[in-house]
Amino acid sequence: MEKKVTEKKATPLTEEQLSAKEVELNSLAETLAQEKKDFETEKEEFKNHIDSENKKLSEGFADLEEKQKEFDEKVAQLSETPEKEEKAVEPLKCTYDNEEYQFHPDAPELILFDGKGWTHQEIIDDKNVLLQIIGGGLGLITKI
Predict the structure, then answer these.
(1) For residue 117, which phi and psi values (nearest 5 degrees)?
(2) What pLDDT is attached to residue 2?
(3) Which residues contact 133 (CB under 8 A, 6 or more apart)?
(4) What phi and psi, each to the nearest 5 degrees, are found at residue 29?
C-alpha cells in the first residue's frame, strides 16, 4: 500500500504581514542585542570582582607568610636561649613573741595588706603588720 503524501503549498504573505513580521523581528533583534550587552557588562563586573578578591587573598597570604616567618624566627630564638634556672629561695624567718616564724614557700613576693604592697622584709620590719598577718591566720607565715 502506498500512501499518498499531500503537499501543502505555502501561501504568500501580504505586504502588511511582511511589514509586521519585520517589525517583530527587529524588536526581537534589539532585545537580544540589549541582553547580550547587559550580559557582557555583568560578565566584566564579575571578572573584576574575582580579580579583586584574588588580589586580596594574595596579599593576605603574603602577610600570613611574613607573620609565620617572624613567628618561626622567634621560636628559633627562644629555643636557642638557655632557660634561666630558678634558684630556690630560702623563705625569710623571723622571731615574734619569742617564737620562730617563716614565710610559707608559696607566699607571694609582694603581699597586699592595708592598701599597700609589702615585701617579706618590710613585713618583718613592721611588728604591727607582722602581728596582724600572724594573728589573721592567712597561712602566709607559719610557725616553725
Answers:
(1) -85, 125
(2) 63
(3) 111, 113, 123, 140, 141
(4) -65, -40
Q: What is the DSSP string of 16-71?
A: HHHHHHHHHHHHHHHHHHHHHHHHHHHHHHHHHHHHHHHHHHHHHHHHHHHHHHHH
pLDDT reported for residue 46: 98
Cell digits for 109? 613576693
In three-state secondary structure terms, 144 is coil
Coil, strand or helix at 141:
strand
Report d(CA 17, CA 12) in Å as an integer: 10
The residues near 134 (Cβ < 8 Å, ≥ 6 apart) are 96, 101, 141
| Banded model confidence at residue 138, pLDDT cuts 50, 70, 90 | confident
Count of C-beta atoms within a 10 Å radius of residue 91: 16
Q: What is the pTM of this model?
A: 0.39
Beta bridge partners of 94: 101
Give the Cα separation of 117 and 119 in Å (integer): 7
Q: What residues have CB less than 8 Å from 117, skipping those under 6 apart?
A: 110, 111
Give me the residue label for grid cell 519585520. Answer: 22
